[in-house]
Every structure is written in structure tokens, then in C-alpha cells.
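Structure request: Dipeptidase, Acetobacter indonesiensis.
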Amino acid sequence: MTLSPSAQASQPQVSSAARALHDALFTLDSHIDIPWPDQDDAFVDTTTRRVDLPKMQQGGMSAGCFVAYIGQGPVTEKGHSDAQAQCLAMLDTINRMQGTRNGLTARVCPTVAEMLAAQAAGDLAVVPAVENGYAMGDDPALLAQFRAKGARYVTLTHNGHNALADAAVHRPSLGDKPERHGGLSDLGREAIAHMNRLGMLVDVSHSAKSTMLQATKVSRVPVVASHSCVRTLCDHPRNLDDEQLDALKETGGVIQITAMPAFLKPRDGDGPRSANVADFVDHIDYVVKRIGVEHVGISSDFDGGGAIDGWQNATQGVNLTEELLHRGYDRSEIAAFWGGNFMRLLKAAEAAAEQTATKV
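Returned structure:
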């Protein structure tokens, strides 16, 4: 894919090697928010979104996981009903991000095979997901509706405990104590079993450490942290510590490093918090050294708060590729970071669902 003149002007100079490699890879961003309730046109290059389909095309991005994000509210019948309705409406909005307009084609892709077919055809792959198990309320049957709308993962919690599990960040304003369930509830364990049967990944970003460690044992499919960073490098409760990283290695899971300054770098004095592409790749380096190349990937959390110097929007992903080359990673390793590892988990989830179906 070729960058437009305006997109080229917004980017630092990159090497021809980085540009060629980036354009040849399957590049997937595993966590992108959508505007809500304002629903601007994803086929138009806007100034209000860090990710829209033209920016993805200009930046050589192959695929993006667009999430129906549901903020945590009261764990009540009405709260659950409202969350369920909003999630289904948001997934419908994500499903409208397909077709051919303004010189580009996008497809909603509920399987890895469809994602790869989209890339082969020069089309953008839109992958739906759900952020916060609160969206299913106390009814795991909702998960089948989410999957029918293409959703590939569900983040167990957001900030605040829900009926499924404890979160890394509790919400006293919602009546939270530091712990509610001691990790997963019985409903949370049931929900994970449903996700395994449906071909959906269990996402442990935002989850309490107890929740995350239990999920690695309960799920028949390796779990993913779709947008998290390394706690040893930045001591934030949303990040994964060494014990959690080791649990990912033992079970085949993946952490998708994310472009959230607060998760990447400790605050320097009283100034504004900032981070850059080098800080981001420091977290990839750490995971590689601790648990291996096959357990780490890339996410932005764009339009949900993510953005760092050098990776401000979907046109600038090549700067990560440049930094990874600079650190000495080869093509196969960079391909693994940019989507290969995440797609391995998606394939594992599909295989588990198929295996379940054949037993019924």
C-alpha cells in the first residue's frame, strides 16, 4: 500500500528497508476503540479519529480489532440490560465498517482465513471484539450473539469489578472493595467455557492478577492480554508482572504491548506523562528476553487513550517496524509481533470451537 502525500508529510523519515518490510507484512493492531455515541464515517479520513479506514490504508495496516467498549456500571439487572443493548448496537456499528468506498475496500472478518483472504485481495480486515464482560451481564448466552456479530475476544473486565471477575483497578464509586470474588466468579468460569466453545479468546487486560492467573488455568485456549504492558518496567496495576508473564509462557498466551504512556513509562517529576516508540519496544524486548518471541505482539489502544511520540495514529506503524529492525529483530520475528502471534491464538480458538462442535 502507498502512503498519500499528506500521510507521508506527517511521518518521520524511515528507511527503505523498514518501509518495504512493513508494507509486505500482515500488520494487525489488536485493540482499537470506536467513537461512541457519535458514529462518524470510518471510510472518511477524519481529524477526530486516530484510526479510520483511510489511515489504515495509508499506514500499510492489514487489520484492526475494533472493540465494543462498555464502561463499568452498576452490577444490577438494569445495568446489565443497558450494557447488553449498547454492546450489540456497537457491534452492529463495527459490522457496518465494510464495503467499497472512497477508493478502499474493507471486510469484517470473523476468522483468520478471512483475514488472510482480505490481505491477499488488498482489502482491510475489520475484526470485532468486546471490551468488558459486563456487556454480557449475568447471561453467558449473550456471548453467542457477540460471536455471531464477528467478535473474536471478550475482555473479562474493565476498571471496576463485574459479575464475572475482579478488575486490576477497583471502583469505590461503584461500591467496589479491593476484591469482590477473589479472581473469577463461578459465572466468570462459565463464561470462559462458553468463549472456548464459541471460538472467542479470553482477554485478561484490565483483570486483577488473581483473575488473570486463574483464567490461564481455566481456559482451554491460551489467553491474550490484548492491550497491556510490563509491570517491571512501569509499575501500574494494569500491567503484567513477571509471574503473570511466566504464566503466559507456560500456557501459550500472548501479551500485546500497548501505546498508553501511563503503562509504558513512569512519570518523570511533575511534568506531563509521555512515551515514545523506543519505550514501547523496550517492553517488547523485556517480554522476548523473559518468555520468548512467540508471546508478545502489538496494540495501540488508539481512540481509547493510546498514542505515543512516533506512533500517533494508524499512518505511523512503520516507525515501530523501523525500531524493531534497529534492535536487530529479523523479518520472521517482526511478523510474529505484528500479528502472527495473535493470529496463532485466534486459530487455536477456532480449532477448539471446531473440536467442540464435532463432539456434539
